[in-house]
Design brief:
Strand content: 35-45%
Number of strands: 24
Helix content: under 10%
Number of helices: 1
Strand order of the largest sheet: 2-1-3-6-9-12-15-17-19-21
Distance between the termini: 44 Å
Structural class: mainly beta
Largest sheet: 10 strands, parallel
Order of helices and strands: EEHEEEEEEEEEEEEEEEEEEEEEE
């Protein structure tokens, strides 16, 4: 295994051995080959404009990580889907500390562990696929804030064995339809899933197998019933006006004895 460095454009000798000599992002395939099984691709600070792509190395385990937390920014010029790993549940991808803007849907083709990711869409879009959906793998997501802005049907799904811990998800969608905000029976720990659509989140479309100190929250002003898991109280974000959707310690979603 090896650690290989990537930059938006080639740096120095571009042999990938250090941040000063990072491969260009266009050479990601070469970086993956150099990293080998168990290796790490470190993305140096800067903005990476990606097209619809599969990060699909021929290895069992690989880590993609921002060298400095949120210093590597993934963006796109349109709505694209970034698929992580090969279509094989025996392979593992670690995806850490990126900031994501634009309209990028993430799809797992392996078992994906995602941590420290901040994604706030800057482009309203119709999804190509369900964000955070899977082929044969699963999602394990921790310490991440996700804001998805769909111009059509909100469409987000999790494999039944996926786990969300200390996460905030906001799904903005004009309509729900048959695809909806949905997916299996994920495990929710100290997390909140919310939507601005009164029909987007309820027991019929997300039915967690475990819901520990977590809640679903409808932000629709006319919603008076929703699903049985709704918490009709201020979830107490740190600074929602500026996109900081972390929960305050006094939040009803994480308060002692609160499991909704």
């Amino acid at each position: 295994m090896a650690t290989v460095y990537i930059a938006p454009t080639a740096q120095g000798s571009a042999d990938g051995t250090s941040a000063a000599n990072a491969y260009a992002y266009s050479s990601l395939d070469s970086a993956e080959s150099d990293a080998q099984d168990g290796g790490t691709i470190l993305f140096t600070d800067g903005t990476y404009t990606i097209a619809s792509a599969t990060w699909d190395p021929a290895v069992t385990t690989i880590t993609y990580k921002s060298l400095n937390k949120h210093g590597a920014i993934l963006t796109s010029s349109g709505a694209i889907t970034l698929r992580l790993g090969a279509n094989n549940s025996a392979r593992y991808v670690n995806f850490q500390d990126f900031k994501i803007t634009g309209a990028i849907d993430l799809m797992s083709q392996s078992n994906v562990t995602m941590s420290g990711v901040e994604q706030i869409d800057s482009i309203s879009h119709v999804p190509q696929y369900a964000s955070f959906y899977k082929f044969s793998g699963q999602w394990t997501i921790t310490d991440s804030v996700i804001v998805k802005d769909f111009s059509g049907n909100g469409n987000i799904g999790f494999n039944a064995s996926s786990t969300l811990t200390r996460c905030s998800f906001l799904i903005k969608c004009a309509s729900v339809g048959s695809t909806g905000v949905q997916g299996g029976r994920p495990i929710l720990n100290n997390s909140i899933i919310m939507s601005d659509n009164s029909s987007a989140i309820n027991d019929n479309v997300i039915n967690p197998s475990t819901c520990s100190h977590s809640c679903f929250f409808q932000m629709h002003s006319n919603d008076s019933s929703g699903g049985t898991n709704n918490v009709f109280a201020d979830p107490q974000f740190v600074d929602s006006a500026n996109g900081d959707l972390r929960l305050r310690p006094a939040s009803p979603c994480i308060g002692a004895g609160t499991s909704s």
